[in-house]
Amino acid sequence: xxxxxxxxxxxxxxxxxxxxxxxxxxxxMPQQALLVLHPHPLHGGTMGNKVVTTIxxxxxxxxxPTVAFNFRGAGRSEGVWDHGDGELMDAFHIASLMxxxxxxxxxxxxxxxxxxxxxxxxxxLRDENVAVDVIDLVQVAPAVENFPIELQALGxxxxxxxxxxxxxxxxxxxxxxxxxxADAQVIHSETGGHFxxxxxxxxxxxxxxxxxxxxxx
Length: 217
Description:
The protein is of the alpha/beta class. Helix content is about 30%, strand content about 25%. The chain starts with a strand and ends with a helix.
């Protein structure tokens, strides 16, 4: 299935626009799947972002069912920006639906703002006693300055951080310090900026290799 299945799902702040590859949120789900989170909605971030779609294509090509969605106020999703708190609830709502539909092992990935929310989602799922095992976290240029991550929230989840030394949106030094403190696998390059201009093939290869190494695909 190369064409995503699009659904409008009732959420905490109105309907949420979702896209699924190799699965369908309204049908029984496979036991293992990936949830990908997009960058900041107020800065043009949607699930159609090229970094998000690159990750989704890697998963699809490897046979890993994948779900993406638009945070409130982005794309066709209803609601308005809620400074990260409501957006975390959106992510929790979709992840919980995936679990109710049969997912038992959940991989998470996020770009920029989405990278920070993905990390926070791990703790939220744990706090709410959701019966799912989060088995992997991929963060691409996580927005650790404006949306800091508490390291204890990560638990024992394997994690990889991918970023570039010429990132013009999030301080590369801040990302590097976070990745070191989080004991994450790090993929670092000097070029590509925040949005990986001209470097999407390298990003694809890094994520693909990571999933293979972790035995996810």
